[in-house]
Amino acid sequence: MLQEPERTGVISVPGKRKEEEPAGLEIVELGHSFARRRVVDRVSLRVARGEVHCLVGPSGCGKTTTLRLVAGLEPVQEGRISICGRLVAEPGFAVPPERRRVGLMFQDFALFPHLSVAENVAFGLRHLDRAARERRVRELLEKVNMTDYGNAYPHTLSGGEQQRVALARALAPEPDLMLLDEAFSALDTALRTQIREEALAILREAGTATLLVTHDAEEAVRAGDVIHAMQEGRIVQSGAPAELYVRPANSFVAGFFGPVNRFRARVRSGTVATPLGEIRVARLAEGEAVEVVVRPEGIRLSRADGGSGSRARLEARRDLGPVHVVWLRLADGSRVKVRETGIVDVAVGEEVTVALDPRHLFVFPAE
Q1: pLDDT digit string (tens) for 133-150?
Q2: Which residue of 33, 91, 148, 168 has the fewest C-beta atoms within 10 A of its own C-beta?
């Protein structure tokens, strides 16, 4: 029987911190509006030292505004922000950005074009004497594999090299918190993965709490210890990547990790009828309008000769090595996408029998 997904609260990765340690970042009931538009609505989260949390959602959901509030680039209207147990912002009070011990990395790298690599990294180290400053710069350039580029200028570097320099510069003042705003999205796919993994490994090793803002669900899954899914200014679910995938809190979260098939229906006698077959549901009222979400990997195909189940016609297919993407035309005329990893021994135009895998099937009250 399909169980209604349970909503989850903010979690922290076990074993990462002692309970008595102050969080690297703590946000409590943060709210912000531009004119009459509510862009951040009662956002709360806690990032332990050495953890990487991803704030993920579509454009306009409020994630970048949240980041700007944490950085001190916008005044806090509601709620409070603390870094390593130190209050840095609440209504009527704000620690200046330069005194928050926060590192920032952006999509465009934001290096100073008139300064060399070494001078860029040293920019935030003016409080140190010359010898200590040069020692710290050498240490950081070695950490990001840019030792031989100290005298180079940003325009002579590749995108990946510029991102490494940006990381070294952000790490130079030894921040308590690192904020990454789509920091890797300007790089090509292969390089993005490499640079992201290197950067996050350095941040975890340094024990730096890290908040990464991204619209890319795949990046969030690969990068984050905890994901906060944001929708229309609110965090609708927080948890480990596997938790959000297996037990999404709502239709938005279920669909954020890739394309899905959706159906509208009503509960009748404890079941929901769809063109793919009937689904038994729990804890949903008789007659309630629902949305059924089926991932492409949740539809199983077999030859139509013999066997029971709903019927469909294979309309198109694309074989991508071990993965097969198939489009089916259902009896009601609707079209669904199927993702198979086994052998699909059915030709285009043939009829198939369809079965559903409950692990990739979710029923939510209709919004």
Answers
A1: 999 999 999 999 999 999
A2: 148
